[in-house]
Write a structure and sequence with these properties.
Number of helices: 4
Distance between the termini: 15 Å
Radius of gyration: 15 Å
Number of strands: 6
Mean pLDDT: 97
Order of helices and strands: HHEEHEHEEE
Helix content: 25-40%
Strand order of the largest sheet: 3-2-1-4
Structural class: alpha+beta
Length: about 160
């Protein structure tokens, strides 16, 4: 789920860590809330239609990003409020594609936007300060975007409008 309000910040942090993950695709949004990953390597037309159906029966919704946290692995993130619509989309996608458990089944999915990592020298305090003029970010979830992440190959593969 793209979060364009945080795109400049996330692009800058991506550049800091690995420029090969910067996309030249104008439709690609680096700042996002993951709904289901990993997903199918080669989705069929039927798989894409299933995602389209899930998107179509989900109305667009508003959310706010303000709460900054850190996962045990050092990933710094913003949690959306409310989180429930994202959790429901993840559950619907995971039910439709049981062969693709969220995060490979390693841990329970927590809706979030990754904004930095402590390995790069960031802290919750420094990240909060860097985002001071951006937060709270008032956002609208209006589409599901299928994105490919690869060195020198990040791009949007498909998108579906919510409620369409």
């Amino acid at each position: 789920m793209p979060v364009p309000q945080l795109e400049p910040f996330v692009v800058e942090r991506t550049r800091h860590y690995d420029e090969s993950f910067l996309s030249t695709d104008a439709t690609f949004v680096h700042a996002h809330i993951t709904l289901l990953a990993p997903w199918l390597v080669a989705p069929t037309t039927a798989d894409l239609a299933t995602v389209e159906e899930i998107a179509a029966r989900t109305s667009p919704f508003d959310f706010v990003l303000e709460e900054l946290g850190a996962f045990p692995d050092g990933t710094l993130y913003l949690a959306p409020e409310p989180a429930t619509p994202f959790a429901l989309l993840t559950a619907a996608l995971a039910a439709a594609f049981p062969q693709c458990p969220p995060y490979g089944g390693r841990f329970e999915p927590v809706p979030h936007v990754t904004v930095d990592h402590v390995a790069g020298g960031a802290t919750v305090a420094s990240t909060r300060s860097a985002l001071a003029t951006t937060l709270p970010a008032r956002c609208r979830a209006d589409r599901i975007s299928l994105q490919r992440y690869a060195n020198h190959g990040c791009r949007t593969l498909a998108e579906w409008e919510l409620g369409a």
